[in-house]
Design brief:
Elements (H helix, E strand, L loop, with lengths): L1 H11 L7 H4 L9 H18 L4 H51 L11 H22 L5 H15 L2 H11 L16 H8 L5
């Protein structure tokens, strides 16, 4: 129980530079736990050999380390299951939007018109999806490689002049759970090139 409270408090502090990368979920972290257990156990055994009078303390420490390592495994398994559920749900929602999003993004320039209500509804669904992905990444439940792939996809659509402008206008209304406009910033040059004929 104490370990769970400690871990929950530790996760909430993931925004701190010192702890951010440690507390954030990563599928590879599972491979680190045996190394942590072995390393700490070796230190405890060495300390015991230096003073064999503290056998009880040594056994207690080894048991504590083993218990904490087991907790980490259990917590990681739970996080992995939760991540898998999120991953499947988000990908299913994106698959449903993908075709319509690409139709909007890839319209020939000579056929482009201002976004209509149908376009905006599709885009708002996508913006909500991105905001939810961001929230769970901030909470530490998304593997970094997966988040990078999703973020690259956001940039891909934000490069489009109409989509990028509409997205930025929507974010100014603060209606996407605090999703920061900086995550899609840096696309203005691409949009200017697109307007000027820099992109096909």
């Amino acid at each position: 129980m104490v370990a769970e409270v400690f871990f929950a408090a530790f996760r909430k502090q993931r925004h701190l530079p010192k702890f951010g990368k440690v507390a954030k979920f990563n599928l590879r972290h599972r491979t680190y736990y045996p190394c942590v257990f072995f390393g700490i156990s070796c230190v405890i055994v060495v300390l015991f050999l230096c003073n064999t009078q503290h056998l009880t303390v040594t056994i207690s420490l080894l048991a504590a380390v083993g218990g904490f390592s087991g907790f980490l495994y259990t917590q990681h398994s739970r996080d992995t299951q939760f991540f898998h559920e999120l991953f499947r749900e988000f990908n299913a929602r994106y698959d449903d939007l993908n075709g319509r999003l690409n139709d909007i993004r890839n319209r020939p320039k000579d056929q482009r018109q201002p976004l209509n209500d149908t376009d905006k509804n599709v885009l708002c669904d996508y913006f909500n999806l991105c905001a939810e992905e961001w929230i769970y990444d901030e909470a530490g439940y998304i593997d970094p490689k997966v988040w990078r792939a999703w973020h690259n996809g956001m940039h891909y659509f934000a490069e489009n002049a109409e989509i990028g402008k509409f997205w930025e206008d929507e974010l100014k209304q603060d209606s996407y759970y605090g999703f920061p406009v900086a995550l899609i910033a840096g696309q203005s040059r691409s949009r200017q090139e697109e307007k000027g004929g820099g992109q096909g």
